[in-house]
Structures are given as structure tokens and as C-alpha cells.
């Protein structure tokens, strides 16, 4: 197809958007995508004009047309689009959100992509509060890495999505991929998808702030959960059973698996120490064999890093961090710092956690969707939030 024969209908529209759309620039981008054979993506992108979310997206991309901002785009090939259900492809607003999830801010070059189990995290343009409820109104991220089989893979997808090739259009680093990416879902869905059945039961049993820890986490804004596998729980069943209905002890143990108020992806995890939701130190160490987490005198290896959630992140681990210690004042102050840090979101220009933030401008700060800090230590320490023990209900 000759590029000059293409028509981009939205170009003729005078749309009122926050950021103006540079039609020359967008047309050039679509031509480049067409030139790469990505006709289905071009067709999907041509519907962006018909939704507010899509218009915002075109405006955001256009802001980079003078070269100030760089972007990295995952561009699904035609085969990828054939698998997209019509309830997504026929819904322009949802399709715009899906496409926004394919665009990362900053130039993430091939030599910055980490080898698994380390991951590369990119901050995407997806900020629709229907689909993302991170602390401070932060945009959703995408996780990807180089696999031992030599492929570069986008993580957390229902079907494996590989990078096929890469190219550059002006300020945009383009990676052609063989799947359309799934927008991350809830903790509830991710626990089911990863068979974390015992963890779900345990979290459902523990009561904090008037609800179960499970429902609280599933609806809070911003947290990191170290999620032991079913096998990990089986291995410490005797120790957990011996805690019986001691809710203080159970809260401490599970609280030591959480960073309350902060969504910490593995690149950041590896360079800092944290205070857990129970007020204890959480540290990590990475080497060529893996990433390890330390709490009290227990250690676990991360068996699956960076399971991205709509409101946080989960790292699956192979041992329960059986630390019964807690410090409610340390938990409170860590939560207060996390909340205050979240209010000053910045725009990453490259992989999250591996380069200093480029700008310090305030983020969206959206308050729609999930409420901030439900239950988990608002003004009080973790160990202090016992509201109605579920007596004797801790049965594995
Ligand atoms: C629009 O994009 C074109 C092509 O990328 C660029 O040359 C031009 O400077 C941009 N215009 C504005 C106003 O940024
Ligand atoms: C956007 O472009 C399509 C063609 O791709 C056109 O049919 C539609 O009318 C345009 N949207 C609006 C809101 O005009
Ligand atoms: C490029 O565009 C952005 C957003 O419109 C603006 O903030 C920036 O100052 C521009 N830079 C140059 C060099 O024109
Ligand atoms: C689309 O429809 C499928 C069933 O065909 C359903 O499983 C899925 O949840 C729907 N997706 C959306 C976004 O509505
Ligand atoms: C690696 O990626 C290629 C596409 O580039 C794909 O055909 C192949 O099946 C992938 N290999 C594995 C082991 O997933
Ligand atoms: C991104 O960085 C790589 C490596 O520095 C470079 O080769 C590439 O051209 C850059 N891409 C863009 C869009 O600037
Ligand atoms: C978890 O949150 C999701 C929305 O993010 C919701 O659909 C789901 O029903 C919630 N699950 C529970 C058990 O509250
Ligand atoms: C419950 O566990 C806490 C923390 O390990 C411990 O300090 C307390 O003595 C225990 N209470 C009972 C009744 O065993
Ligand atoms: C984290 O804590 C451990 C153990 O206390 C310490 O050895 C390490 O230096 C700390 N790391 C950082 C980045 O502060
Ligand atoms: C992961 O990162 C750590 C720290 O930078 C490094 O020591 C380790 O070798 C990396 N692991 C892999 C598999 O690349
Ligand atoms: C560490 O383990 C020892 C025995 O193995 C135990 O007595 C002690 O309480 C543990 N310390 C912590 C902080 O969990
Ligand atoms: C998402 O980002 C766009 C572009 O910066 C902005 O116009 C919009 O208000 C943001 N939406 C939310 C919900 O923060």
C-alpha cells in the first residue's frame, strides 16, 4: 500500500483536547506503522478520535513530537489483533485504554531490558481510573524481560507475548509484538490465576479495619504483597496451626508480607530496604540465581516477580516469611511516608526504578475508583487495627 493513499479521518476533526494533537506527527506515525505491515494496529488507532480517552492519548503522544519526550510503543502485529474479542475492538473507549497500555514513557532501549528473573518496568500512558488505582494516581506499568530462551517477553499475559523486532519512528522506540496486551486486573483475579489458594484463605481470615485483609488489599490504593505459594504454606502448616487463633500473631506474619501504601516493583525492591505493614524491616538481595527477600530470620526466594495488579503489585515467593514480630509505630510512620511520597508522583523517562526520575511534576492524583488507604494502618499501626477476631477460624 502506498503511504500517500492512506486516509486518517480524524485528521480533519477539530477536537478540543487538553493537549493539542499534532496531525502531521500522528499521520507520520501511522504511515510508519503501515509501512511495517501493522495495518490492524493502524485501524485500531484510527478509532482513537472517537473517544475522550483516545483523544487524550493522541494529545499525549503529540506532546513528544518536538522531541522533548520519548516513548516506547509495543505494536501488536496483525495476527495479534485477530484474537481481540469484538467487545474490546468494538468499544473505542476501552480500545483506547488498551492502546494506552501499550505505550511507555521514555526510550527503553534493547540494552536496558533486564534478564529474567530481573524485570524491566515501564510506566505506561494508561491512567483511566476504571482500570488503574495506584497510589498518587500513578499510571499503570508493564513488566518485561529477556528470557533464557533468548526471547524478550511481556510478563503477566494470558498467552505468551514476545517481542519480534524493533524500529524507531522519530522520538518513538517501537517494539513489534505478537499479542495484544491485557490490562492488569485485581488482586482477586491474579490470586486465582496464580493458584494462591491458601494465601487467599489466610488473608480472608485476618480481620483489619472492619474487613478482611483480602478485601482491604483488593480495594486499597498502592501496596506490595509478597505472596507465598500453596506449597510454601504447606511447609509451615504446623507452625501456623500452633498460632491458633492468635490474631495479633497472624496479623504480624501476614503484615510482614506487605509494604503498605507503596507499589514496589522488583528493580526498586533490589536497591532499597523497606518497612513492612507490621513495622519490621524487609530487605532483599539479588544475584545471578535469583531475588531473595528477608524478614526477621526468614528468607524466601521470589519465584515470580512483578505480577502487576490494578492497585499494586505482587511478588510470588517460595517460603512464608514467618516473622511474628511487629512494631506498630514503625508501621504507622512507614505508611505516612509512603502516602506523602505518593502525593509527589513524577514522570519516569525510562525504566521504572533504574534511573532517577526526570521531572518532579505532580501527577494525576486521581481520587476516583478505589479509596485511599482503606483500613491498612490509617493513623494507627498494623498491630493496633484488630477489629473483631475471627476466633479459631485460622484453618489451613
Ligand atoms: C508536529 O510534528 C511535526 C512532525 O513530527 C514536527 O516537525 C512539528 O514541529 C510538530 N509541530 C509542533 C507544533 O510541535
Ligand atoms: C473517527 O474516524 C472514523 C473513521 O475511522 C470516522 O468514521 C468517525 O466519524 C470519526 N469520529 C468522529 C467522532 O468523528
Ligand atoms: C515541546 O513540547 C512540550 C509540550 O508541548 C513543551 O513543554 C516543550 O517546551 C517543547 N520543547 C521544545 C524544545 O519546543
Ligand atoms: C468480552 O467478552 C468475553 C466473553 O466473550 C468476556 O469473557 C470478557 O470479560 C469481555 N470483556 C470485556 C472487557 O467486557
Ligand atoms: C520465541 O519468540 C518467537 C517469535 O520471535 C516464537 O516464534 C517462539 O515460539 C518463541 N520461543 C519460545 C520458546 O517461546
Ligand atoms: C533509544 O536509545 C537507543 C540506545 O541509546 C537508541 O539506539 C535509539 O535510537 C533510541 N530511540 C529513540 C526513539 O530515541
Ligand atoms: C476485587 O476488586 C475487583 C475490582 O478491582 C472486583 O471486581 C472484585 O469483585 C473484588 N473482589 C472481592 C472479593 O472483593
Ligand atoms: C500472640 O502472639 C503475639 C505475637 O507473637 C505474642 O506476643 C502473644 O503473647 C500471643 N498471645 C497469646 C495469647 O499466645
Ligand atoms: C538493607 O539491610 C541490610 C541488612 O540490614 C543491609 O545489609 C543492607 O546494606 C541494606 N541495604 C540498603 C540498600 O540499605
Ligand atoms: C539481577 O540484578 C542483580 C542486581 O543488579 C544482579 O546482581 C543479578 O545478576 C541480576 N540477575 C540476572 C538474572 O540478571
Ligand atoms: C529467629 O529464630 C529463632 C529460633 O529459630 C527464634 O527463637 C526467634 O524468635 C526468631 N527471631 C525472629 C525475629 O523471628
Ligand atoms: C490521564 O492523562 C491525560 C493526559 O495527561 C489527562 O488529560 C487525564 O486527565 C488523565 N486522567 C486521569 C483519570 O488522571
Automatic annotation (TrEMBL):
A Pfam family per the record: Fasciclin
Compositional bias segments (type: Low complexity): 342-360
Superkingdom: Eukaryota
GO CC term, one of those recorded: fungal-type vacuole membrane
Domain FAS1, first and last residues per copy: 38-181, 183-321
Keyword annotations: Signal
GO biological process, one term: macroautophagy
Alphabetical list of SMART domains matching this protein: FAS1 (SM00554)
Keyword Transport: no
Location of the region described as Disordered in the Swiss-Prot/TrEMBL record: 342-366
Range of residues in the leader sequence: 1-18
PANTHER family with a match to the protein in the record: FI19380P1, PERIOSTIN-RELATED
Record-given protein name: FAS1 domain-containing protein
Organism: Jaapia argillacea MUCL 33604
Amino acid at each position: 500500500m502506498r503511504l500517500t493513499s492512506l486516509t486518517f479521518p480524524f485528521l480533519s476533526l477539530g477536537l478540543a483536547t487538553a493537549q493539542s494533537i499534532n496531525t502531521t506527527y500522528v499521520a507520520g506515525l501511522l504511515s510508519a506503522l503501515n509501512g511495517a505491515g501493522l495495518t490492524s494496529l493502524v485501524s485500531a488507532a484510527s478509532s482513537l478520535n472517537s473517544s475522550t480517552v483516545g483523544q487524550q492519548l493522541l494529545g499525549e503522544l503529540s506532546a513528544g513530537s518536538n522531541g522533548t519526550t520519548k516513548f516506547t510503543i509495543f505494536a501488536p502485529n496483525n495476527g495479534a489483533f485477530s484474537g481481540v474479542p469484538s467487545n474490546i475492538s468494538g468499544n473505542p473507549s476501552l480500545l483506547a485504554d488498551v492502546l494506552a497500555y501499550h505505550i511507555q514513557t521514555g526510550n527503553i532501549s534493547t540494552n536496558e531490558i533486564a534478564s529474567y528473573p530481573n524485570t524491566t518496568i515501564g510506566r505506561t500512558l494508561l491512567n483511566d481510573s476504571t482500570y488503574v488505582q495506584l497510589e498518587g494516581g500513578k499510571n499503570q506499568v508493564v513488566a518485561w524481560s529477556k528470557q533464557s530462551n533468548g526471547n524478550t517477553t511481556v510478563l503477566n499475559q494470558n498467552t505468551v507475548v514476545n517481542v519480534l523486532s524493533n524500529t524507531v519512528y522519530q522520538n518513538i522506540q517501537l517494539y513489534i509484538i505478537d499479542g495484544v496486551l491485557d490490562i492488569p486486573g485485581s488482586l482477586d483475579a491474579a490470586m486465582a490465576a496464580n493458584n494462591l489458594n491458601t494465601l487467599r484463605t489466610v488473608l480472608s481470615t485476618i480481620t483489619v479495619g472492619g474487613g478482611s485483609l483480602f478485601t482491604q488489599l483488593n480495594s486499597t490504593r498502592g501496596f506490595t504483597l509478597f505472596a507465598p505459594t500453596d506449597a510454601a504454606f504447606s511447609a509451615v502448616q504446623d507452625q501456623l496451626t500452633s498460632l491458633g487463633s492468635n490474631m495479633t500473631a497472624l496479623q504480624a506474619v501476614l503484615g510482614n508480607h506487605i509494604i503498605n501504601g507503596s507499589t514496589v516493583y522488583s528493580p526498586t525492591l533490589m536497591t532499597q530496604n523497606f518497612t513492612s505493614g507490621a513495622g519490621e524491616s524487609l530487605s532483599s538481595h539479588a544475584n545471578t540465581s535469583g531475588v531473595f527477600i528477608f524478614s526477621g530470620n526468614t528468607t524466601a526466594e521470589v519465584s515470580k516477580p512483578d505480577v502487576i495488579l490494578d492497585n499494586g503489585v505482587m511478588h510470588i515467593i517460595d517460603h512464608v516469611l514467618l516473622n511474628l514480630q511487629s512494631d506498630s509505630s514503625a508501621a504507622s510512620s512507614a505508611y505516612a511516608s509512603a502516602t506523602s511520597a505518593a502525593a509527589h508522583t513524577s514522570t519516569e523517562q525510562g525504566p521504572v526504578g533504574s534511573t532517577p526520575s526526570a521531572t518532579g511534576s505532580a501527577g494525576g492524583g486521581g481520587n476516583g475508583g478505589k479509596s485511599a488507604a482503606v483500613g491498612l494502618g490509617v493513623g494507627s499501626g498494623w498491630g493496633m487495627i484488630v477489629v473483631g477476631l475471627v476466633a479459631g477460624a485460622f484453618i489451613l
